[in-house]
Specification:
Elements (H helix, E strand, L loop, with lengths): L2 E6 L4 H11 L7 E8 L2 E8 L2 H5 L11 E7 L14 E3 L2 E9 L2 H10 L10 H12 L4 H9 L4 E9 L6 E6 L4 E5 L2 E5 L11 E4 L4 E6 L2 E6 L4 E2 L4 E2 L4 H4 L7 H7 L1 H9 L19 H6 L2 E6 L1 H18 L3 E5 H4 L10 E7 L5 H12 L3 E6 L5 H5 L2 E4 L12 H21 L4 H21 L3 H11 L4 E6 L3 H16 L2 E6 L16 E6 L5 H12 L4 E6 L4 H6 L2 E4 L8 H19 L18
Helix pairs in contact: 3-4, 4-5, 8-14, 8-15, 10-14, 10-17, 14-15, 15-20, 16-20, 17-20
The chain binds 2-deoxy-2-amino glucitol-6-phosphate.
Length: 608
């Protein structure tokens, strides 16, 4: 998964592209490069390593160019190296690519037979030779169309041609590509933050679309050459929302943005008088929602943990059976789908390959689909029959935080919508659950005041080699998420488990000082969880508790107690997650880890 950006206009294209790449580093950062045209000749600078290495190669002469393309890479084919870095060129054609060409090996063999020389190990290089091969006989746009018709796989391309120095071409197939529109200037990138500080009027390309950009022209057509009319949309993300806003890392900024993100996600989904849920914008009709007899919740990673929480909500409140699965498993199952099922894909990016494949799998069986997604116009949001946008704003840190808690709030709202239609909740409880939701952002603000206390705790435990996170009921997926946060940014081995499962194996790990984080709601699971804590105590484990309970036994047995003012056991999952996000962040910081760009990870995994 990589970041790509192109610019054409009257300004210093190389500087604009360089700045854009910095905003895309979370998409991949093992090598980077830029190409521009000067006096109708291609100039390329590229190297292994982060953008700051590339920056040292930019000389003033390159800034005379007004057209440029750039790329920051997360390697899939060919190790990170100068030769494998993008852009790649061939005979006056130069391009950058995000995605995977599945049939590149056979194309490479054919091109080599035609005498083309390859200097990289990438799949991308076959594309540029293929375009060059057709360009020798066809106009630029047609050569591109003919070349991409040979490709199998996923690709977002931005292409320049020395013979058409006033044009950029973009191609989209299963990898995101968005166009930024200003008078006399055009941007094209894999993600909005790349050019958001310049413009917020955008057009999202769909799969199978090609954009031909001049500084004062945008033409979009399909792979068969048929022109398509697409209207721009205005993105209400300010540039600062995509910047760090004064925080040390995007992740900390995004943890602190959660009260606002939750408020924005709730906004407009509950009638102003708090009486009912409003859901017509999602695209699910009332009569459809009343009929659903089974719901599938499918996602990857942190979004999968949101699915697990959603299961407790929907089954307990809306009384609809829910099946949760990891997308990479779901898509290969032989499922006897039931009539009147709803498939819900949850994805922050809306571009996760496995989740998209699971969505397409469900659609193939005629199942109604809903995407819960954070990126307007992302593939999942456009391929699902209906979409519920979380409005958490751009999530740049690779470790998902605000998007996750907003996903939970979205599932809670969806649950209340079902309960409202099916009449599965007494009125007063329904109104209490709505009131709790409207109060949630305020309580999330309160939880953030635990920051100093969490920093002290982090200093005590950051050298621990292993952690166990335990919880019961809706708190169990919170334990899974707390463990994932810690392991993915601090590289400490951490496991999340259902507390009731501890005696079936994990307790063997516990010895003196072994840290066990318990997530405990003051609900029907409290007593049982306290007995689990006693088993840890008996083995001198270090008990760290996150809870809204004031039970004195709980307090007494905990070595470290983080009290969180709670609301109900469903929304407590959001409030309990925040201290665990902060704990992971400060532990990772103390261990000198790259919090926003953890090793081996990418923000959205657009490859299988
Ligand atoms: C979250 O912290 C991880 N970076 C990762 O597990 C992520 O949740 C997963 O890749 C799914 O991404 P998505 O929500 O964009 O589909």
């Amino acid at each position: 998964m990589c970041g790509i950006i192109g610019y054409i206009g009257d300004k210093k294209a190389v500087s604009i592209v360089l700045e854009g790449l910095k905003k895309l580093e979370y998409r991949g950062y093992d090598s980077a490069g830029i190409a521009c045209l000067i006096d109708e000749k291609i100039k390329i600078i590229k190297c292994k390593g982060k953008i700051k290495n590339l920056e040292t190669l930019v000389d003033e002469q390159l800034n005379s160019s007004t057209i440029a393309i750039g790329h920051t890479r997360w390697a899939t084919h060919g190790k990170p190296s100068d030769e494998n870095a993008h852009p790649h060129c061939s005979g006056g054609i130069v391009l950058v690519h995000n995605g995977i060409i599945e049939n590149y090996a056979e194309l490479k063999r054919e091109l080599k037979k035609d005498g083309y020389k390859f200097i990289s190990e990438t799949d991308t290089e076959v594309i540029v030779h293929l375009i060059r091969k057709y360009r020798d006989k066809l106009p630029f746009e047609e050569a591109v169309r003919k070349a991409v018709s040979k490709l199998k796989g996923s690709y977002a391309l931005v292409i320049m041609d020395e013979r058409e120095p006033d044009r950029l071409i973009g191609v989209r197939m299963e990898s995101p590509l968005v166009i930024g529109i200003l008078n006399g200037e055009k941007f094209i990138a894999s993600d909005i933050p790349a050019f958001l500080s310049y413009c917020n009027r955008v057009i999202f390309l769909d799969d199978g679309e090609i954009a031909s950009l001049k500084k004062s022209e945008v033409r979009i057509y399909n792979f068969q050459g048929k022109e398509k009319k697409k209207n721009p949309v205005t993105i209400n993300w300010t540039a600062s929302m995509a910047e760090k806003g004064g925080f040390k890392h995007f992740m900390l900024k995004e943890i602190y943005e959660q009260p606002r993100a939750l408020a924005d996600t709730i906004r407009g989904r509950i009638l102003p008088d708090g009486s009912r849920v409003v859901f017509k914008e999602w695209g699910l009709k009332e009569e459809e929602m009343e009929k659903f007899k089974k719901i599938y919740l499918v996602a990857c990673g942190t979004s999968y943990h949101a699915c697990l929480i959603g299961k407790y909500m929907i089954e307990n409140i809306a009384k609809i059976p829910v099946e949760v699965d990891i997308a990479s498993e779901f898509r290969y199952r032989n499922i006897p789908f039931q009539e009147d099922s709803l498939f819900i894909a949850i994805s922050q990016s809306g571009e996760t390959a496995d989740t998209l494949a699971a969505l397409r799998f469900a659609k193939k069986y005629g199942i109604k689909t809903l995407a819960i997604c954070n990126v307007l116009g992302s593939t999942a949001s456009r391929e699902a029959d209906a979409v519920f946008y979380t409005h958490s704003g751009p999530e740049i840190g690779v470790a998902s935080t605000k998007a996750f808690t907003c996903q939970i709030s979205a599932l809670y709202i969806l649950t209340l919508a079902f309960a409202q239609l099916k009449g599965t909740l007494q009125k007063d409880l329904f109104h209490k659950f709505i009131k709790d939701l409207l109060h949630l952002p305020t309580l999330a603000e309160e939880v953030l005041k635990l920051d100093d206390k969490i920093q002290i705790l982090a200093k005590e435990v950051y050298r621990k080699p292993n952690f166990l996170y335990l919880g019961r009921g809706p708190a169990y997926p919170v334990a899974l998420e707390g463990a994932l946060k810690l392991k993915e940014i601090s590289y400490i081995h951490a496991e999340g488990y259902a507390a009731g499962e501890m005696k079936h194996g994990p307790i063997a790990l516990v010895e003196e000082g072994f840290p066990v984080v318990f997530v405990v709601s003051s609900d029907q699971y409290l007593e049982k969880t306290i007995s689990n804590m006693e088993e840890i105590k008996a083995r001198d484990g270090l008990i760290i508790t996150v809870s809204d309970s004031k039970d004195e036994k709980l307090n007494r047995i905990s070595d470290r107690f983080i009290y969180v003012e709670g609301i109900n056991s469903y929304l407590n999952t959001i409030l309990f997650t925040i201290p665990l996000q902060l704990l992971a962040y400060y532990v990772a910081l103390l261990r000198g880890c790259d919090v926003d760009q953890p090793r081996n990870l990418a923000k959205s995994v657009t490859v299988e």
